[in-house]
Amino acid sequence: MSSVWNLLNPVRNGGQTLKLLDSGREFFGTVIKHGINDKTVTVRVDHKFWVPKYKEYQSSQKKYQVHDEENFCVIGDKVVIRSCMPLSPTKHYFVRNIVKPFSRDEFKPQKDQKKELDENVKQEYEKVYKELLEGERIRLSTKKRKEELIIKAQLKARALQKAIAIKKSFHLEKNI
C-alpha cells in the first residue's frame, strides 16, 4: 500500500504512474547510498500502514541493499526495485528502473577546479605549518627527540585543519 501511495504521489515520482507487483516483490524507494560497493546501492523504502488501535496511519522505513548493474544510480534517485534470487547474503533486489533521476551535474567535480583547490590547500598548509613551527621552536629545543616528533605531528595536523578551514571559508565567500 505504501509503495503504491508513494508511487501515485506526483511530488515524489515526477508525475508518472507505474504499476507495482504485489506481495512485496516490487518497492518504490529513494537511493540513499551509492559508490561504496561496486554495483550496489542502498535504497530506503517508506511504508505506511493502518493501525486499528490508534485509528491512524503510521509510517516506517526499511533499507535494502540493491543491485545496480550499470552503476548509474546516485543519491536522491527515485527507483523501483524488484526482488530476485539472492545475489549475496544481503542483496535480494535489483533496480528495475529509475522513475525520477536526481541531477548528475553536482556529482562530477571539475578536475581543474579540484586540482587548483588542492594546490591552494597545500600552499596554505605549508605556510601555517611554518608559522606554528616557529612559534613552538623555543619549546622544542628543551624537549627530547620523541616528544619533539609527537609535537611536530600534532602541529602538522593542526596546520592542515586550519588550512582546509581557511580554504573552505574562502571558497564559500567566493561563491556568495
UniProtKB/TrEMBL annotation:
Pfam families for this protein: Ribosomal_S17
Example GO BP: translation
GO cellular component labels: mitochondrion; ribonucleoprotein complex; ribosome
Keywords per UniProt: Ribonucleoprotein, Ribosomal protein
GO molecular function: structural constituent of ribosome
PANTHER family given in the database record: 40S RIBOSOMAL PROTEIN S11 FAMILY MEMBER (PTHR10744), SMALL RIBOSOMAL SUBUNIT PROTEIN US17M (PTHR10744:SF1)
Similarity comment text for this entry: Belongs to the universal ribosomal protein uS17 family.
Descriptive protein name: Ribosomal protein, putative
Organism lineage string: Eukaryota, Sar, Alveolata, Ciliophora, Intramacronucleata
